[in-house]
Amino acid sequence: MPTEVPTEVPTVTPEPLPEEEALPEEEQVPGVPSLEDIFPDKLLWTDDDNIETGTVYGTALQRNEAQVFTLAYATCPVASMTVGEGTQFTVVLEGGVRPLTMFKAQMYFQPFDETSGYIYSYTSKYLYDLDENNSVFTFTPNQACRWYVLFYAQDSEGNYIRVMSDAINAYEAESAEDPEAELTAAQKVQQIVSQYITSGMTDYQKALVLHDWLCENAYYYDDALADGASTSDYASQYWNSHHAEGVLLYGKGVCQSYSLAYQMLLTAVGIENVIVTGTSQSQGHEWNMLKIDGEWYFVDVTWDDHKDGTYGHNYFCVTTEILERDHSWNDNNSTEEDASGEDSGNMVPEAVSTDRTWLMSHSDFTFSTYEEMEEKVKALPEEIRLKRTAIYFYYTGEDALDSASL
To answer: What is the pLDDT of residues 4-37, one digit of tens each?
Structure first.
């Protein structure tokens, strides 16, 4: 993910929205921001705002300061929506002191226009009251564009949390039937699924095949100008590289493009998943979580797709313990302070199972100490020790391993 939005991307200001009706007095909570503060009548994430620090609202809200909320994300059962057709969203929110005094969701939208940059808009028509025991609502998009769920909750002790979901596209129904229409990301997803996914595959096999398709058909791309793109083409290429269209339709993009594309592919084959936002290798980053056989795992397709044209599976179905060695993100188990008042991405579950971890299942052995490694190498069958060109192992120890001693 970029550390800043290029100044070359022009700002587009939508038509002013109609004034919203005042909220009933019973919906106002004394001592905390009102919904007018939470959903201000202004653009969200304009080009003048600092995206990395989340300075996007006129009022800075403390987010989950006491860490009482443990999970917070929204799910959708389809890879894309159709204009005029209802789609069911589920907001997953765990923790907090119940009952909740406020629990609402707001739909934001962004046009399919590369000049829109990081600008989002909303309308009061799509503001939903949620029930903490049944946090499901049905949304019917009225236009073809990119949609997001921003949800907000406050518990009975005044702790509050605000989270923006991942993007989901909405398309006109007739575009899928027009032979001259430009291919959409959703249509490309269906092509990939039809070609590579079979009915006999397990969810693990589906997730692996889709991971490998992205690695084989896309590469990391973050500088259109360096590739000789003209200034007029820069905005378009920048936009594509930060959305699913980048890797799906043009074969190149940054981590945001990889994660959004993988999300669409996983959703299309019925695998529950969510995007994770954080940092890795000292830069902003996005990757995925998926749920297989009741267990959550992390997958980072971007870092598995190597710049030399090869790819691996070091980040396929890994645990929290493994990933946090070189990634950091917003979760209740994080050691990083997360009470800065910034808007944040999903608060995701902990991944603890190694049942599907590729590194584990494809290693000749695992070890936690140098002495244990020596013993296991000696115990390997002769055909592995003497005839193989490489031995694959996985280190499970907590201390940094000195590779010079291997």
So the answer is: 333 343 333 334 334 433 333 333 333 334 444 4
Distance, in Å, from the CA atom of 305 to the CA atom of 161, rounded to the nearest integer, reads 34
Give me the count of residues in the chain: 406
**Is 266 part of any domain?**
yes
Kindly list the distances between the CA atom of residue 398 and the CA atoms of 46, 202, 343, 370, 403, in Å, as whole numbers in the listed order.
Answer: 42, 33, 32, 12, 14
Mean pLDDT in residue range 306-310? 91
Residues 153 and 121 grouped into a single domain = yes
pLDDT of 328 above 60 = yes
Q: Which amino acid is at 92?
A: V
* CATH classification of the domain holding 257: 3.10.620
Q: Is residue 15 part of a domain?
A: no
What 3-state DSSP class applies to 267? helix
For 378, the domain range is 363-406
N- to C-terminal Cα separation, the chain: 35
> Is residue 185 domain-shared with residue 333, that is, in the same domain?
yes
* Residue 297: burial class (beta carbons within 10 Å; 0-12, 13-18, 19+): buried
- List 73's β-bridge partners, or say none: 92
Distance, in Å, from the CA atom of 88 to the CA atom of 134, rounded to the nearest integer, reads 12
Residue 49 lies in a domain: yes
Both 85 and 132 in one domain: the answer is: yes
CA 166 to chain CA centroid, nearest Å: 6
**DSSP per-residue codes, 133-144:** TB-EEEE--SSS
Q: Tell me the two tokens of residue 166.
A: 């991942």
